[in-house]
Amino acid sequence: MLRHPLTLLTREVPPISLQPGSTWLLVQDLHAPFADLDQGALAVMAARKVVGREFDEFAETLRLAAANVARLVAAARAHRLGVVYSCLGYESGATPSPFQEATGWRWQVAGIETEFPPGWQPLPEERVFSKPGWGALANPAFVRFLEDRRVENLIVVGAMLDFGIRQTCYELADRGLGSLVISDAVAPLTLGAQAHTTGNLAHGLTKLRSTAELLDLLAVMRTEGPVLV
Amino acid sequence: MVIQTVLGPISPEQLGVCLPHEHIWCDQRLAPRQELFGVTRSTSSYMKLNDYDRMCAELIAYREAGGSSVVEVTCDGWGRDLDVLARLSAASGVHIVATAGFYIEPCLPAFVAEWTVERLADHLTREIEAGVGDSGRRCGVLKSAIHRARVEGLELKGLRAVAIAQRRTGVAITSHTTGGRRQEVPGGTVGVLQLEILRAEGVDPSRFIVGHVDERPDIDVLCGLAEAGCFIQFDVIGKEHWLLDETRAELITAMIDRGYLAHLLMSHDRNRDHEMRYGGGTGYRHLFDCFLPRLRRLGVSPAEIQHLLVTNPARAFTRV
User: Fold this and answer.
1) A17-228, which class in CATH?
2) Residue of A213, A217, A227 to mutate, interface with B, max B Cβ within 10 Å
3) DSSP assignment string, chain A
4) B211-255, pLDDT tens digit by residue?
5) pTM of the entire structure?
6) Is B211 at the interface with chain A, CB within 8 A?
């Protein structure tokens, strides 16, 4: 039984304002190592160790989330929200981070043409940051990117909800930045982990909304200006 | 002074032991805007109870445990069926009160967006005064449900229509308060915000039942709502992923000690197969088999339990 007793004492998550400029869409860990369910690093490692079935729930939710991610990336661009990518891995010419060495989750983040499915492939002007640990803000360049643009909140979609996305939300909260996780555009490793993680995240740190709700909100933003969530 | 059931009016004395917030017949797969649920889950996890024979057996088991009546809070939009409820009531011997009003945004019928508040209020009033559709079967309570962290949009429109219908008919308003977004709402229950709007619309707070308070309870907020005159409904008893029953029992006892016995209601909000006895759960008997013993151990007297199970529901659901 999943319980969240800290929520009985934690203050309410404050509202966040969605508006172009200060609100960005973060696409996290949806590059080939996680998103390619046939040839990606996770799939290959699992198959080699004959534990692929253990990732069936991940694959199932990723497939369900994929269509929503593509819709959200397109909507963000249409509504003039910035789109930015953060991907576990190290950049060309760099070496694996201590986290990557320790865990074995180590690979180079290479050209975007081969790294991303077509549905959410970055545009040339959109930045892709490597991620040395689970959280996106482990990369100082990404932190500077957010600061330089005075980003106030991030809409978060992606894979590895129970590891990377959770960690990113913690890191954003530490810096006073808001986060809005799109509950049907994130993929956890297991459905149980999804319930537990979203419960913990939603209670005190971040907000959860569905793709359909966010699309409704963005439509309001376009006609009426900033919207509070 | 009557309570309207699906088989006709009864006197408050006939209501007996009452569960004020349950589902008997519902199917969330029928919800018009399921995409708003926003969870990558299979439809098997949706709220659904639609096996007639099994639900009849559940109601009979409830009656055998001492139960007499159930307020069925499924609204139009996801499977409400007063004819089925009437058959179940007749077969089981349990009084069933049906609900007019609106559940959360994903479950709202399309007409809620299309009609004016006044027309919606007329529709609800008709379901209380004349019956649902051509069935002649009347609802006995109104419902307002808020899914968002604020009262806005179609849910606000629905709440305003419910308020107008309440003033016309005198029935109580029961509520769904926020669900998964309770952590975004000051005080943990959007009931506080619903009450503000209802008051502004001229509704007497004593006709408002704040539901789901035991998902994220703050005893100071709950006492404030009771002080305002509302009913405080601990209605997810047995769902310990939100709160341990032990904690619920201590909260109810504490509220009794603070003088709010007359404001308290108790129920389970059963809505899925696995919660029912046929699915391995405790069904509508959980209160009797598991929860009342906890209250008794904490010193709640038989007279006080009678108040919680009989006296308060009778007052809540009697038209005034």
Assistant:
1) alpha beta
2) A213
3) ----GGGGTSPPPPP-EE-BTTEEEEEES-SHHHH-TTTSHHHHHHHHTT-GGGGHHHHHHHHHHHHHHHHHHHHHHHTT-EEEEEEESEETT----HHHHHHS---EE--HHHHS-GGGPPPTTS-EEEESSSSGGGSHHHHHHHHHTT--EEEEEEE-IIIIIHHHHHHHHHTT-EEEEEEEEEE-SSHHHHHHHHHHHHTTT-EEE-HHHHHHHHHHHHHHS-EE-
4) 999 988 999 999 999 999 999 999 999 999 889 999 999 999 999
5) 0.91
6) no
